[in-house]
Amino acid sequence: MCIEERSESTFCIEEKEGKKEKKASGSNRASSLVTYRMDTCDYVCFTTCGSNGIFSRRLDFTLYNVLPKQRINSIEVKIEDEGKHGNDDTRMFVLSSLAAHKKTHIACILCKEMMMVYDRYPLVDGTFFLSPIQHSKDCIETKFEGRTCYLTSVCLECLDGTSPEKIFRCRFCAEKWDGSALMMGTMYSFDIFAAMPCCTERLKCNNCFKLLLHPHQRLNFFSDYTHSVTCPYCQSQDTHFVKPLDYCYTNKPLQQYQQWP
């Protein structure tokens, strides 16, 4: 099957072998559900006729005014679609994953503020990422390239640290987490927090707590920090560099914390 867009906000499924297109019927053209198969996981695509579907259309970029003017550009904020007819894989993956759970809003993993999800880029006032662990119950379980992961989001204020109450620091080294280098409005296929270790506590085995990487060592790709590895000391296989965020970060006055877990 292939997913096509027949109007600015209408998603529909078309069979390549000449089968008829599925359309919503009735005078009021209500939303209909079409289930399709992707990466061995069932998704639900909301097909609408004469309406904007379950996701809202962005009317303006007012919320991005909290950013410095030089950062409001197509390099740092995802604006244009990459695929034909604006129907690229990343956008469809995010929207279909959320639609499967009937979610039109998602909570920031740090400050817990709810964010609206839009049908066009930028998809959210922040960014999405995939993590192999469920950082909170608001994270959406999904399948990506055959593996189970959780769709997670961070709002733009937490990414940029523009609000004093939304500044998060490492519990161990007190370094401020800075996500300003990340593109907003799209999705990363790896855990963005694991990809930016700030101290040795982030590089330890989840089982025996021995150091797996020298503090000055860096893996080749950001996504490597999300992969499962085997500890050479205890032979435990885990995504050792992906830590629970409550263990790593706080926006409260720093104090001494016990070793996790």
Automatic annotation (TrEMBL):
Q: What sequence ranges are listed for the domain Headcase middle? A: 49-245
Any transmembrane segments, and where? none
* Superkingdom: Eukaryota
List the coiled-coil residues: none
Q: List the InterPro entries.
A: Headcase, Headcase_mid
Which Pfam families does the UniProt entry name for this protein?
Answer: Headcase (PF16002)
Name recorded for this polypeptide: Headcase middle domain-containing protein
